[in-house]
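Exercise 7.
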Amino acid sequence: MKIKPIFITLTFSFLAFMDNLTTIYALQAGAYETNPLVAWMFTNPINFIIGTTLKCILTGAIIYYTAKKPNITTWLFISIIAFLYLRAIMINILNAI
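Solution. The predicted structure, written as tokens, is:
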């Protein structure tokens, strides 16, 4: 059974959104954001909406075009991105506790 690229795209866009959502909870719990671009994104609700939308669209586009031609390199690339997003989400959850 072949996995559809749109399913993978939506999954990774959801991971990108969850990364931003858990970052909000971590910041509210007292964590500090060291990435200046991400810190700027959380200064204003409009910046957050624009930044989150762009992050989800760019992640989805990269994954969609990568998943259209599946091979071992493609799956390795997708796995690395998944690991980085899941790692960021877990760190944010631990910081929010």
